[in-house]
């Protein structure tokens, strides 16, 4: 994705969060009210302190002095109570906003990614997406729920303290402000450096997440090749690269914070020195000096916090950029604005491929299908055979509109697939892939995935039809048994039968079988083949098969080679033809 130290935008990138903040404008307003009130309570403390020093400590009458001190301490305590209440209200409101906005942002990005076509995942690693969903949204949560409010609170306090200091000590603060202006330019240079390194650090962390996701999803392959050390080393290199960039980011950020604190403290101490000279000369009172000292401390503390908050904002700006990049991605496969009416058919779909030409976006120079034309009548069973890479799976991908063809068109019951909404189109199709996908849930929910509203009785009937009922009931909790990540608690054949049960339960008019029995032993294959033949009855079925024995009974066999339809007919006709199919059949059946 991004490269290290690539140019990045200003913290104004955080403006991408505005659509997520807008629905909660009422709470934001209330948080700002609490924030301003807490800042005002803090700014009132030095005034109360000045009153204490000048009005409570200079009394000659001891009784009057005790009463005055009591009143001033009550006033100070009232300020502390107000500060505590307003700070608690601010903290709750901004924490709620941080959690809510982070959750909304995470949900929006996840929902958007799920709508992307497979083309998106040809160039974007899953681990990269997961890193943005977790680490980047956590950074945003930190800023919205903490750093931003701290920054605003300290900005209000700092400006308030500065205003009071200028009002009470105009000549001295004029000198201090002139010095502070000289601090701004170096701080901006440091900030730009931190911003670049923050984005680079997040990208390197995403690289290690992508490696981990890839390896963990293929852990059995890694272990079977004894590659644990090699993969550990590769992951360590990625994490060390992320660490190196993070250290450089931290070093630059610490230099930024140190510079701001030292420079502002020097300027403010100069002002404080001038104040002590004024007391000694009798130009101001001791209470005035005490008030000035506290305001100087507030102003210095505000600048120090703002320096740290600015670093957080820079990191969050990089995180927001990465999240907005995901939200800005647009899938080329979308439903039409005025889709054709949903297809209603129960006896199978008629399919037409008319001179279809297609190449995958990642392989523009290599045609996956060339001038491919095929007509399948409703209720027919057609098998697609041919060598690997011939284009068989591409036919399925185009039917499901995972991609759009660059030429020609595909019709379902006479309606171009591009004119149907994606939901209506895919509702008509059931697919049993070669590598069965099992989710981390129960057997019941896995079968019910295609029809969430199906009853338990319907689920069991589908499982019986797929010869899965017996092994499911033998599991520890039967249909409620948790199957583990990717169904690791099941054998390959059991996972395949669950996928077949899922397709049978969906009961679509068009069934796509991609080597649906490839993971089964001979006995299971015979049972499932019988179940599939029953499921195929009365609906259109396309079957991809390498084992020709499983498709001899198909109404028609279509042979593909290098993206072209080269032969079609029944098993007997193709054997008699003596072409590619006859050669494949001779190899398999002779063996």
Brief account:
The chain has 591 residues and is an alpha/beta fold. Helix content is 62%, strand content 9%.
Mean pLDDT over all positions? 78
Per DSSP, the total helix count is 18
Which CATH architecture of the largest domain is right?
A: Up-down Bundle
The chain-level structural class is alpha/beta
Give the ordered list of helices and strands: HHHHHHHHHEEEHEEHEHHHHEHEEEHH
What percentage of amino acids are in beta strands?
5-15%
Distance from N terminus to C terminus (CA atoms, Å) equals: 49 Å
Q: Can you summarize the main beta sheet?
A: 6 strands, mixed
What does this entry look like structurally?
- The chain is α/β, with parallel strands linked by helices.
- The protein is 62% helix and 9% strand.
- The protein has 18 helices and ten strands.
- It has helices spanning 18-21, 25-56, 62-114, 118-123, 126-168, 170-216, 219-224, 228-280, 286-328, 392-399, 422-427, 443-447, 456-465, 469-473, 492-506, 522-536, 571-577, 580-590, and strands spanning 351-358, 369-376, 381-385, 407-412, 415-416, 429-432, 510-514, 540-544, 556-561, 564-569.
- Helix 2 (25-56) runs antiparallel to helix 3 (62-114) and helix 8 (228-280) runs antiparallel to helix 9.
- It is elongated.
- It starts with 17 loop residues before the first helix and ends with a helix.
Keywords:
alpha/beta; 9% strand; ABC transporter transmembrane region fold; elongated; Rossmann fold; 62% helix; 6-stranded mixed beta sheet
């Amino acid at each position: 994705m991004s490269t290290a130290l690539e140019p990045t935008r200003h913290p104004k990138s955080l403006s991408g969060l505005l659509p997520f903040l807008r629905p909660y404008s009422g709470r934001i307003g209330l948080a700002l009210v609490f924030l301003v009130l807490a800042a005002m309570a803090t700014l009132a403390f030095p005034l109360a302190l000045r009153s204490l020093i000048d009005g409570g400590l200079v009394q000659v009458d001891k009784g009057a002095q005790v009463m005055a001190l009591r009143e001033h301490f009550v006033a100070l305590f009232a300020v502390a109570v107000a500060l505590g209440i307003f700070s608690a209200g601010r903290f709750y409101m901004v924490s709620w906003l941080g959690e809510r906005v982070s959750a909304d942002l995470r949900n929006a990005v996840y929902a958007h990614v799920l709508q992307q076509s497979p083309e998106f995942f040809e160039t974007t690693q899953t681990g990269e997406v997961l890193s943005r969903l977790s680490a980047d949204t956590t950074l945003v949560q930190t800023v919205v729920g903490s750093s931003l409010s701290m920054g605003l609170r300290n900005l209000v306090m700092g400006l308030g303290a500065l205003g009071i200091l200028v009002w009470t000590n105009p000549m001295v603060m004029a000198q201090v402000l002139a010095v502070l202006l000289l601090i701004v330019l170096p701080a901006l240079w440091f900030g730009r450096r931190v911003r670049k390194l923050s984005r680079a650090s997040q990208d390197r962390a995403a690289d290690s997440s992508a490696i981990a996701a890839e390896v963990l999803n293929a852990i059995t392959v890694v272990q079977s090749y004894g590659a644990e050390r090699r993969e550990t080393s590769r992951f360590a290199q990625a994490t060390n690269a992320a660490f190196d960039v993070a250290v450089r980011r931290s070093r630059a950020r610490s230099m930024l914070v140190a510079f701001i604190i030292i420079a502002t403290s020097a300027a403010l101490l100069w002002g404080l020195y001038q104040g002590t000279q004024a007391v000694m000369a009798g130009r101001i009172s001791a209470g005035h000096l005490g008030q000035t000292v506290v305001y100087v401390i507030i102003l210095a503390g505000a600048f120090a916090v703002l320096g740290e908050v600015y670093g957080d904002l820079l990191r969050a700006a990089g995180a927001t950029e990465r999240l907005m990049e995901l939200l800005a991605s647009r899938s080329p496969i979308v439903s039409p604005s005025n889709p054709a009416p949903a297809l209603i058919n129960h006896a199978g779909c008629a399919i037409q491929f008319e001179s279809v030409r297609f190449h995958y976006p990642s392989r523009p120079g290599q045609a996956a299908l060339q001038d491919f034309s095929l007509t399948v009548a409703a209720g027919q069973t057609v098998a697609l055979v041919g060598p690997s890479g011939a284009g068989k799976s591409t036919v399925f991908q185009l039917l499901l509109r995972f991609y759009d063809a660059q030429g020609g068109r595909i019709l379902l019951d006479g309606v171009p697939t591009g004119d149907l909404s994606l939901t209506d189109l895919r509702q008509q199709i059931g697919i049993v892939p070669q590598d069965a996908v099992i989710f981390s849930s129960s057997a019941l929910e896995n079968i019910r995935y295609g029809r969430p509203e199906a009853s338990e009785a319907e689920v069991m009937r589908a499982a019986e039809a797929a010869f899965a009922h017996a092994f499911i009931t033998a599991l520890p909790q039967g249909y409620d048994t948790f199957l583990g990540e990717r169904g690791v608690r099941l054998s390959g054949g059991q996972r395949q039968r669950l996928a077949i049960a899922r397709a049978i339960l969906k009961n679509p008019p068009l069934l796509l079988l991609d080597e649906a029995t490839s993971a089964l032993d001979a006995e299971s294959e015979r049972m499932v083949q019988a179940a599939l033949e029953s499921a195929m009855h009365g609906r259109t079925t396309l079957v991809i098969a390498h084992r020709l024995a499983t498709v001899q009974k198909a109404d028609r066999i279509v042979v593909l080679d290098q993206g072209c339809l080269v032969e079609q007919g029944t098993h007997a006709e193709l054997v008699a033809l003596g072409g590619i199919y006859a050669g494949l059949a001779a190899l398999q059946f002779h063996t």
